Amino acid sequence: MTTYRHFYVKSHAITSPSINLRDLPGSGKRLDIVARCINAAFWLSYGIRKNVVFHTILHGEPNPPIYIRFEGEKLRKVSPDERSIAIFIGKALKKFREDTEIESTPGVFVARKKFHELLEEHKDKNFYLLDEEGEDIGDVEIKKPFFILGDNVDLLPEEKKLLDDYGAQKISIGEKSYLSSHCITIINWWMDRHEH
Amino acid sequence: MTTYRHFYVKSHAITSPSINLRDLPGSGKRLDIVARCINAAFWLSYGIRKNVVFHTILHGEPNPPIYIRFEGEKLRKVSPDERSIAIFIGKALKKFREDTEIESTPGVFVARKKFHELLEEHKDKNFYLLDEEGEDIGDVEIKKPFFILGDNVDLLPEEKKLLDDYGAQKISIGEKSYLSSHCITIINWWMDRHEH
Description:
Two copies of one chain form a homodimer.
Chain A: E1 5-11, H1 31-42, E2 43-44, E3 47-48, E4 52-58, E5 66-71, H2 82-95, E6 102-105, E7 108-112, H3 115-121, E8 126-136, E9 145-149, H4 157-165, E10 169-172, H5 180-194
Parallel strand pairs in A: 1-4, 1-9, 8-9, 8-10
Antiparallel strand pairs in A: 2-3, 4-5, 5-7, 6-7
């Protein structure tokens, strides 16, 4: 049986289908972070991790919140560089429809969805919130994981409260504050090392 | 006393100062890999790792080999996204001079240098070659490290022979083959966790 790994990254990136690929950090409102997180979630030297599902909700203007999901099993043609990943996010934003979820390109899905709806959908899994003050990952038994991370801005108190209501456990990978993409790389590696 | 971490990534990226920022993987000959490796080597959420020195030698056309070094202590103004890092590599290539090392922007140095010259310069350190068949990182005591990685292409037999002559130890972070940038992220994290 495949053990899936879910990652959610809250993003403040723009929800406009016109992304300026020359300025992902600025006018894209740190869309570069999301792109690097997707790289970290999926890529190995010789292929894509098929057991990973990556979720994000973009909270930037002009049309938030927009939910985007990448599924490793179905992903095709995306390259690991930031620009390529951002292009596929742009395609998702272009095909977004208010009333239904769309598969914008193979393995990439886009919909209107709020954070609490996402948690409700996945409540059969265990939520782990990355937090420097959480329990050390070495002391936690991770099962059916749904990892939650912020981008360069912390989650809101009400989001943390909601996670609390859903029984999320705070876990830490160390005292230093790492980039979200680096956290994902480390968690994937940690899981590779400890799953067997 | 600061414990420095050196990383070297062999690259096949182009050595032309005219980099097409829209095509780092293609015409840039995987310059995106170098950019992500530099991101992995230096960035934390709130700053740059000052104890890291990153080395690469670009082996692509038209003017190989060109050596570039990033020093965490002196690095300024570079952002963590691939495009920004590639711009700084482009500036280094523009200021390259055949006869002497140049500091092209703060903390970025460029020179004509071959791999064996780099090893000779750093022979006071311990070379660790990342290799899936090496000794597990958990079983190795890492001191004064100078880590060696390839990009998407393996090192040449003569480079491995040279490393052998310099007493390099093969170390492994697992059975899977990880992206070079992910290896660097994991090694940095591993060192953070085990240095104290």
